[in-house]
Structures are given as structure tokens and as C-alpha cells.
Amino acid sequence: MTKPRETTEDKEGEREDEEAKESPPTVGSTAMEPPGGGREEESEDRSRSDVQHDVKDARSQAEAVADQAQYDVPDDAEEHDEKTNVKNSTATVKVLLMPEGHVMTMAFAIGVSIEEIKHHLASELKVPLAVLQLSMNGRVLEEQQSLMELGIRPHSSTQMEMSSSDPSSYPLRLLRPPEHDSMPDVITVRVQKDEGEFKEVVVEIERSKQKKPFLGGYKHRLTRAEFHHAAVQTLPQKRPDRGVLVYSRSTQTVELKSTPQQCSVNTSTQMTGIGCYMSCVNDKLITPGKYITADEYHGRRLNAVICLQSYVRRWLAQKTVDQLRKERIRRLTWFQLQDRKCKEEKEEQLRDRRKRWMNPQSREDFSLLYHALEKWRIEEEQLLNSSLRGAERKAALCSLLEQEMQFIAAIGCHHINVDANNHEKRIRNFLNKSAASHQWQSATGRLFEMDSVNDIRARELKELYSEISEYPVDQQQRLRFLEKLKSTVMEHECQLVWDISDLIDREVDLLSRQVKEQNLEGLRKRICTLFLQYIKTPAFNPKVTKLLRVHQKPSMLKHNMFFCLSCHHYLCSADFGSSSSGCRRRQCRNCTMLDNIARSRDDDSVYESILRRLRSDEHRLNAESTIPVLLQVEDIRYLTEKVWASCSALNGSRDLYNLVFARWDHQKDWSPWNCILLSKEETSAHIQVEDIHKAYETTFIHWVEQRHSMARQHFRKNPVLTKNLNF
Q: Reduced to 3 states, what is the DSSP secondary structure of residue 80?
């Protein structure tokens, strides 16, 4: 692997060892070395593991050679010619290949000539000797000169430039890729011999032609690079001979000894007799104890086992009781939590209803308000009918009618104000939808947005509408907004654009006359209204095509327009409600709401909440269930009032806000003929029932089945629900 060479430290001019004298003139370039074995490209890196393991081998062999050299140096080493030793000393030469810039690092004896160096380099680079030129510090070197004559000292380093006289035919290039030349040919190792005394050992690195086998380490999964362990890739260091036989039979075999053993007192028994006296001073009196039989022994063991079992069973019983106590506390806590949750839900419902009564904002809120008014009227009328008779009753009823008219007028005024506020909100929502970007979600969950030309156009119109509808503003700023609006709409020519332009010119003229702002409110509203109509025109804003309720193409309205029998208007299908029977209603939504306000004044919000909870529960149990999706609010109203009489099937509670629909048979999907109306508390207990025939009485089961028959008879008119009927 390596060839170590050692020299003493150049403190007192010591001579080189005889081992350095026998070395060849060049270190790192031998006949067995592969091409490029003595080069190193300084810009490239070698794998760290190979470098460490080569250096480790070099150091270990250098130490071995240094120790061996102490015994191999002849006695007459000091008598060698000092000049010959100096010439055989080596120096590191870095050869810079021009113009590529590659560097070759080699070790040469300082006594060799430039011609010999050229011979070696020519054989390495595979080029003729005549084309090589060596120079140092800009001066061409002569072939007869040696390194020592050039002023190169032993164990030093120098740099030379080498170029080719015919670079086109014989360029100077490395035959081996630079990534294999990261290890230098020669390294110098500093070895400590004695305390305070060091030696410098020059080690030549030899590169083996064969690839090292993989005996241990790591391998990169992607790059397939191998990182070898230096401990298993390096030959073990030979242990020095200590002169002691370590492995011998005497050290590996146990030594046996035979030693007799005898008590201090004889084993025989002696007694006092004629001619023999035995002292009884050391004698001991042994008294026999109570004899324990086998039954007594086993009985004692049995009692001990029973005692241990009693303690263990007591511990297990205490553990079981503690577990039951914790479960009881947990269950009671859960019951309290459910009770508190139900109370909070009821309180939240009452607060929500009170808020909707005091400040109605939607159609459902006004329906609830009219329902409360009708409920109040019925209660007052019943009170008057029960307490008054004759003319007094008629006068009281007329007074009640006047109060009802006042309440209706107040509700109507509030409805008008809410519509005015909601109108502005609807306009803002419409503009925001038209100016929204296209969004989609990728497979990784990332949200992407894209703006088209139509999106940018709609966003500009939205910003312009916000500027026009914003007042009061400064007069100069208002003039800039009007100028911008006029330049935007004048891109097209039509009657709407001309009307907007005339109104803008009129406002500009009035502003120049210093007219008050309150006198310009009507004109500004007309401008905003016409500009909103301009925005809703698909020819000027193509993005609103998908947002308009009535499509601009007449061919698209052929099968989507229906006639309302109440208002006698042709409206699109979205203005009509649908039912579970599949038949479309003959009245539009507005007419239906007006009829409800004038006649029955029913509130469907509670039935909407029941239907909403039913759909969520069934979707959680079976996402493919279709019947709860087909049912409408009117169907839930019919089931609640006509089939189940608006009360719980178990306790008869009539609090509609606390009633929910549940499955009668848990194994089947929910349907009007497989349901039961219960309170929220009863629903939790009914879900846990496994067999309804064992949990409920036969009379109650028959009564529920009758309700199911009524529901089946009513909903058999629907062709979609008929498929799920079971006769």
C-alpha cells in the first residue's frame, strides 16, 4: 500500500538513513504504477474514507519501518559520503500543465536532472520528449541542470510549468480523470522516537490496480457511493515480539491438585469406661421438640395460602370498587354535561328567537314575527270571546283589529328599511362574485388562483362603482371619478352609454355652479343605477353571464319559464318552490310568502331546523341515504303535525324545538315509515335499544306501526319514494 521513507529532523544536519539511499530517484512513479499514479488535481476531492485509511496504513507502516531501521542501520552509516546522501534526498515537485491548469504532484531525488524528469513525464502523459518544455519562474530550464543546482533543498517543495511546443498535435492532458488523483504521491509523517526527539518519515503512496472489496461501511442509496470502514479495510498491525510465549498449554490448562481433608476430631464415638475417661465439658444437651406430622405441615401451608388469597382478593375488590366509583362519577358528570348542554341549547334558541323578533332581517325572521302576531291575536280573541258578550265584544274586537293593523304597518315599515339595506348588500355581493378570481385546489391541497381578462375587467368596473357610489367626497375628487367613468363607458356606443354620459355632463355642470350636495343625491343615484345596469350587461362585462338569473339567450329559456297563477308573471324555475311529490307549485315564492302573511301566518323555521338535523344525522350514519334529501319542509310539517300530532311519542312533550326524528329500526335507513318523533333526551336512550320488541310494549309497537301506515299512504304518490316502499 505505502512505502515509508524516514529522515531525521534537520536540526543539526544529520545524515539520511541508508534506507533513503536505496530509494529510486523518483518516488511515486514506478514500473508497476498505473498511468497517472503520481498525479493529483488539487481542485478535485477524494472520498474521505479512502484518504483516512491510506494515511492510517502509511503511518502504521512508517512506524514499523522506523522501529526496524533502528536495528538495521550499519555501524559505518556515518562514514557514507554526505554529498551522496543529499543527492538521494527527495523533494516534492508540482508540475503545472499549461494551458489546461492541471497539477501533477511527484517526488524526485534532488540529484536527478531535468532530462530525466522530462523522460518520466513524457512516459506518464504519452507524448514525445521533444515537445516538452519545463520552466520555473518564467525561465526555461536546461536539461543538464539538476534539482539541487536549481536551489531546491531536501524535503522541500517547488512548482514548475510544463508546456507543449506543438499543442495542437500533442496537448498536455491527464490520462486519468482528476477525481482519482485527490491523494498525493508522497506524504511526510512526523514520528516521535523519544521524549523531545522526532523523526520525519517520507511515505510513498502506491495505488493498487485492483478495486478494494467492500468489507464493511455504508453505501449511498441514490449515488451508490461506497464509504469503507478503515478498521475492516486495513490489515491489522503486527504485534511486537515480547519474548514471552503467550499461547502455551500450561497457560490454557487448569492445574489440578489432590489434597486430603480430615476433621480435627475423630469420627468415632468414645465413652467413659474402665481405663478411659472422656470429659463431658463440651457436651451439649439436645431436647427433642414437638413432632410435626405431614398433615399438620400441609395444613399450615394451606392456612398461609388462604390468608394470602384473602388479602389479594380484598385488594382486587377494592380495585374493582374504585373503578366502578370512577365510572359512576364519569357517567354522572356526562349526564350533568348533557343536561347543561340541553339547557344552553334551549337558552340559545330563545335568545335567537328574541333577536329575530326584535330585529328581523330575512324572510324567515318576518315569518316568525307574523306567526307571533297571529298567535297573540288568537289568544286575545279567545280571551275576549270568553269574557265579553254582545256590543262590548264587537267593540273589543274592532279595537283588537286596529291594534293588529298598527302592528302590521310597523312590521311593513321595518321590512321596507331592511330591503333597502339588503339591496345594497346584494349589489356588493354581486360585484364581489363577478370580480372573483378562478380558484382550484391541487392534489396536494394547495390553492391556486388565476385572473383572466374578463376577471380584470370586472374588477375595474367594481372599483369604479365603489368610487362613484362613495359620497360625500371632495369636489375635485368627484370630478376625477366622473371623468374616469365617462372615459370607461364611452368605449361602447349604445343608448345606455349615451344616457350615462348625459347624466355625467349634467352633474359636472351643476358642480361648476356650486349646487349643494343634497340637491345632487337623486342625480347621483340615477348615475349609479345606470352604471350598475351597464355592469350587468354581458356585452360590456362578460363575467356576469353566469351570475344573471335570466339568461340572455332566448333559446336557453324555452324549457325554464313557468307561469304563476297568482301574480300572472312568467318566471324562471328558480322562483318556484319544489315538493317531494315531484310536482312544481303553481305559485311563486313571493306569492306564497304573501299568502302566508295574509292567511295562515305559519312559521316553518322550527321544521327547517328539524329537517336540517335529520339530514346531518343520516349523512353521518349512511352517506348514500337519499330520502332525507328528497323531503322538503312541508313534508316534515305534515309528518310532525298530521302523523305524530306535534308531540313526542313517549312522553307527549309539545316543545317543537326539542323534538327530533330518529330511526325506529336502527338496521334500516330512515324513511317516513321507519321513524319516530322523540325528544333529544329520549333519542339518546332509543339509539341504545337493540331489540325494540323487547324494550317496548306490544300496544305501543302497534300504535307506531299505524303511524307508519299513514305516512306510507301519503308518500306513495311520490314516484321516487315509491321505490323504497315495502308492502
A: coil
